[in-house]
Amino acid sequence: MTTPRICIVGGGVLGAAVAYHLCEAGCTNIVIVERTGIACGASGRAGGFLAKNWSDSKSVGQLSTASFLLHEKVAEKLRQEYNIDVMYRRVTTLNISLKEKTTTTPQRKSDTLPKWVTGDVFKEEILGTEATTAQVHPGLLTNGLVRVVESKGGRVLIGKANGFLFETITTHTEKDHHHQTAPVQASKLLLENQDPVEADIFILTLGPWTYQAATWFKDSVSFKPNISRQLDCIQGLKAHSIVFKGNQPTEPYAFFLNYVTSANGIIDPEIYPRPNGDIYVCGFGEQTTQNLPDDANHVSINETSCDKLKEIAIHVSSTLKDANVEVRQACYLPISPDGIPLIGKLYGLENVYIATGHSCWGILNSLETGHQLAQLIINGQVSPILNTCDPARFSKGS
Ligand SMILES: Cc1cc2nc3c(=O)[nH]c(=O)nc-3n(C[C@H](O)[C@H](O)[C@H](O)COP(=O)(O)OP(=O)(O)OC[C@H]3O[C@@H](n4cnc5c(N)ncnc54)[C@H](O)[C@@H]3O)c2cc1C
Question: For residue 279, which of 269, 287, 288 has the smallest C-alpha distance?
């Protein structure tokens, strides 16, 4: 049986998850076109925190719950069938409040806190239990999914996509013997300094770079503005993170902080101890922008932000004082205007799909997004989740 030729543009967690689910559904003729490297952007630099029911929106809530449950199943499958460990585990999630400058002598902490937390926590709250929160290593997950796709015949092509070639689908109806020109479809993905990629179906998973694809449709005759608006609405939001490497306690906890600065401001970084003894710390979101460097490895790093993350983490646990910070990094996450991801067929084209705008929940929601999109592409199945996330809501302009 011949399966459709599928071209996925963007090798982050969304591209990997869509490829994985298409593969699971029997589509093996897949090429992932990635500009820099698999998981080079947010998908390799995120925390990997997963929550079952933290979303306010009903449909996005369904997406998150389904995805949360899928993470466990996929992690198990990758481990058992492919010997791939993505460091998945359930965690207890705490909100802890500390002050930059404490005036009182540190009190004995409450029993809710693990011993690893040595800082003077003046308030704590349980945000999630092992029934509702978990973590995964995002880079290992993204690379693991791609390895599965490759093992079934799919391939990764390193190259910069920069346009499409189009064709109109010409139909011939019984009623009217004239040829009817129906909607436009993409036939080839153009690459910088490389041969184009021909495919039957194209899926854009460009994360925060999605806006750059708005110009790729300039040759697609009458539909251009409507198509472009669905891409041009995506912005990037930069955030920093650091990773302490080494033998830290591996208790299954995740920490959301309220850190009261000396000037009485509040900073809210997150700390995720990982099962391998690493401690991941992130925070300091900046203004959204459409001015991103092409290469994810060239995102500028604000050393002051990284230093502050380090200082706060050491304040939470003094055992970090002698630990090595081996990773200091920044990356952009993709933001949509209404905070809801764009998942589905691009309005105005027959065979181009998109999955982006997952904001700070892209790792969590990747797996069910991939599952939903694969069902849409293969069976034409539209769920309430896909109705809510339909990219066409942005095709008409503001
Ligand atoms: C600090 C931080 C912490 C986070 N923590 C969490 C968390 O704990 N839990 C959670 O669920 N989410 C988290 N997120 C969010 C999550 O990381 C993102 O939502 C997710 O990674 C987005 O994935 P993506 O595949 O859409 O985009 P990306 O990972 O950005 O992938 C897009 C890919 O497209 C490629 N590309 C772009 N343009 C082209 C082109 N022209 N040609 C070819 N390839 C191209 C890029 O090189 C890139 O590899 C966090 C994000 C940040 C920044």
Answer: 269
- CA of 170 relative to ligand 1 center, distance in Å: 37
In this structure, the residues whose C-beta lies within 6 A of any atom of ligand 1 are 9-15, 33-36, 40-43, 46-49, 160-161, 205-209, 239, 241, 282, 296, 331, 333-334, 356, 358-364
| Cα-to-chain-centroid distance, residue 137 | 12
Return the pLDDT at 270. 98
Burial class (CB in 10 A: 0-12, 13-18, 19+), 361: buried
Burial of 352 from C-beta contacts in 10 A (0-12 / 13-18 / 19+): buried
Q: In whole angstroms, what is the distance from residue 359 CA to residue 63 CA?
A: 14
Strand locations in 246-373 (E): 253-260, 266-267, 270-273, 279-283, 288-289, 324-335, 342-345, 352-356
List, in sequence order, every beta strand (DSSP E) within 53-100. 89-90, 92-99
Residue 176 has pLDDT above 70, yes or no: no
Domains with residue ranges and CATH for the chain:
1-86+135-233+337-398 (3.50.50.60), 92-129+235-335 (3.30.9)
The reported pTM is: 0.95
Pocket test for ligand 1, best of 34, 65, 140, 191 (most atoms within 8 A of CB): 34
